[in-house]
Amino acid sequence: MATCISYEYDATTPDATWLCAFCERGPHAAGLGDLFGPYPLDTDCDEALDEASRRRAEGAAWLHEACAVWAPGLLAAGARLWGLAGAVWSCRGARCVVCARSGACVACRARGCRARAHVPCARGVWTLRDEDLHALCPRHATDTPS
């Protein structure tokens, strides 16, 4: 992901409102590094958002690179992102099985499993393979060959 850090961004004195749109943590939380953004949440697009989601998606989003990589339907090319509004609202509608907060973007790939987790919650507990975005919850990690 190309760097797109706002000129307003200061990692040493972060603004408390700058939270990742996915994990809702600030910069450098849980070893996640800088926040990138702000990216506008464009709701005037072909993404399947209902009217209530469109109203909630107004504004801009900050994100950690690690969270964005695992977000479903998010495509990055250079400093541009496609599918951000849909990915944000898809993840915000999912509860993390580890901490029970919303915003979980890592999904277990086992058929029929609905387990979701935040990237920092899944690290060390789930089987995560960054090279092919393969994630298995603890229940399925032992059931499926890698």
UniProtKB/TrEMBL annotation:
Superkingdom as given in the UniProt entry: Eukaryota
Protein name, UniProt field: Uncharacterized protein
Organism: Choristoneura fumiferana (Spruce budworm moth)
